[in-house]
Amino acid sequence: MKADPSSVDKTRGAGPKPAPVGRPRDPRIDAAILRATAELLAEIGYANLTMAAVAERAGTTKTALYRRWSSKAELVHEAAFPAVPSAIQTPPGDFAADIRAMVAAARDVFTSPVVRAALPGLIADMAADPELNRRVMARFAGVFGAVRERLAEARDRGEARADVDPDRLVEAIGGATLLAMLLRPGEPLGDDWVDQTTAILIHGALA
Amino acid sequence: MKADPSSVDKTRGAGPKPAPVGRPRDPRIDAAILRATAELLAEIGYANLTMAAVAERAGTTKTALYRRWSSKAELVHEAAFPAVPSAIQTPPGDFAADIRAMVAAARDVFTSPVVRAALPGLIADMAADPELNRRVMARFAGVFGAVRERLAEARDRGEARADVDPDRLVEAIGGATLLAMLLRPGEPLGDDWVDQTTAILIHGALA
Amino acid sequence: MKADPSSVDKTRGAGPKPAPVGRPRDPRIDAAILRATAELLAEIGYANLTMAAVAERAGTTKTALYRRWSSKAELVHEAAFPAVPSAIQTPPGDFAADIRAMVAAARDVFTSPVVRAALPGLIADMAADPELNRRVMARFAGVFGAVRERLAEARDRGEARADVDPDRLVEAIGGATLLAMLLRPGEPLGDDWVDQTTAILIHGALA
Amino acid sequence: MKADPSSVDKTRGAGPKPAPVGRPRDPRIDAAILRATAELLAEIGYANLTMAAVAERAGTTKTALYRRWSSKAELVHEAAFPAVPSAIQTPPGDFAADIRAMVAAARDVFTSPVVRAALPGLIADMAADPELNRRVMARFAGVFGAVRERLAEARDRGEARADVDPDRLVEAIGGATLLAMLLRPGEPLGDDWVDQTTAILIHGALA
DNA sequence: ATTTAAACGAGACGGTACGTCTGGTCTTGTA
DNA sequence: TACAAGACCAGACGTACCGTCTCGTTTAAAT
Question: Using CA atoms, how far apart are residues C166 and C198, in angstroms rounded to an integer?
Fold first, then answer.
């Protein structure tokens, strides 16, 4: 569905020369479109965002948008997740701190104004378009890998329970954050929320 | 937003008599619409479902739909959640069993074909419409209350940790299930998935 | 290509009852669209006329236009030729006067501001769409018949040459007028033009 | 409007030397474009002809087209009328034969497959663009002059009626042919058509 | 041999109209 | 009053084409 994969794998070493022919795309237009999309998402939300409005605010035209992204969903997911943190920013050696950092990181990503505005609509589009689903998920591959890695290290140190499946852990962290965001439209998730959620994920609900 | 509350609480005793005048609604039409909506959701998904198509399959017209539901979202959420289990179906006294039952119940609700097809679109609409959000959430009030109740009982018995916030627990259970459903389009969530998720929520990730 | 033939043959006696069901079309909208089209043709010409602009001026929407006419060309031909004179307005018995009347009538039709603006574009569309061609020509069937009739009468009286083919006569009258209109953008065709053209058609160029 | 007049009057002696510097144009490209335009006109018509398609078939690019012709209409009129006969091919001294030759010449020009396909669209564009109108008409200046000349000679010999205006005669000949072509899409105009039309223009319709 | 200026292939760009689709409302005639 | 049917408003959709512009490359003539 991607109109042009070049923006994804610009420097994919498929050959010695990609031989770019014809007028090159204006990178300022790419940036202006993404910025306009992010602004409009925060201002009017996903449902009210139109390609024409994005084009107008970016100072370009619909044609230029569709040359780069094949649909509103493709554009939005790139504008909403320009960079997903692929590494956990805490020193290793303390698994409890790792989990808290993961929860906080998930909270930070999901409650940014742009993501809050984009994600519900994106979820709907992803459910209807497997290819889009795959592409969005690819953005989070780094996070998933980092969780998996920290969990393996903690297990080696004897810090983590052996029966904890990394995918289940990701689902629990990400799912709790996602649902909390959806249930509290407009309200932030404070550090106390992070603490409470972390407590359950670390010690469980049982005494 | 509800066009007519009568289909929800037909005999709400607000007064002595609502004085029904004119031709009464044909209840077969209500049923046909809901059935057509559920079928189409499973077949073509939320985004491709149109009110006109629902009307056609139900053998009626758009007018009849809008007389009963004020919007596509209102119709779909009623077709997708005809009945949400409001009580936990396990005998009390075993909090671990309670949690597993909750996870399994969430899994059962979220992975039914109709809910799978409807929920992503509903999430998008709910994010844009607080009133709809409120109405859908009301359907789950019973579940939330049940979780809260069981947790309180378990805490009284000393079975549950005192610092477990019931809202966080609901978010973790529902969120993990929701995200798992979204991440595995078309694939079921088996009993092993329930077991693994339950393990984390009961004992936590730490050794 | 006609979106709905009902506006053409509203009372075609195909059966005892057409049984009109559903909300009927608002005839004021038909009139407003045709009026807006004629106005815009005269103001900005065929090429610059857009369906959206017609809809806006008519106080309605594009949907309503396309429900009635399947394309810009279909709409314009109906707006440009609301009524083509189907009879010659001179007393019979003088074939020279008949021809002059025909030339003057052709001049009147072709040099009206709306027809002047519409015809060039219509000619282009007709060449690309045989069905449209047929429909436009049908509007002139009455004129053609009238010419044929007057010619036959004149021949019976011995006034007209026996070898004059009626189709050739129509082509000469209409063609000369059409070309004169095309060659003089914006300029009128006066009575002297009618006299000169009539002279050739009556007496020929030879002495 | 002409992008570059060089293709029309390459050696216009406006100055001592135009001093052609830089890479000269490839004349094979001029030819290929005109041939591709003529072919596509005959195949898909004026409305469906796009500059991109012409470029592709000619094995070149849009840039090369616009370097030579400033618009689709400019290109088409040059492809459709590569050469208009500027003189009448009959021996002088017989005005009736002159007229028949003019009618036949008009028929030959207007019914060639390329002109048939191009003219309706050109008429539309000419009506909207006076400059284009002027340029196309200039191609027919020779024909007009020839008619005028023959008419003057015939009048001097006493063969032609004195009140015949040459412009009216041109309009009658050209107009009748144009309209006949438009009214018979795809059908040829035979010699009998020429005879019948000539008869009216020579002797008139009156007995 | 080098410079220069324009032609060339390729394709992005702004602009604009197209005809379609959907959501949700309104207006008929009939039951 | 419900109902079937379908017209209505409003507005986004994605496509297509026009004519311009900007690259990097090639080709001749002038230096």
Answer: 16
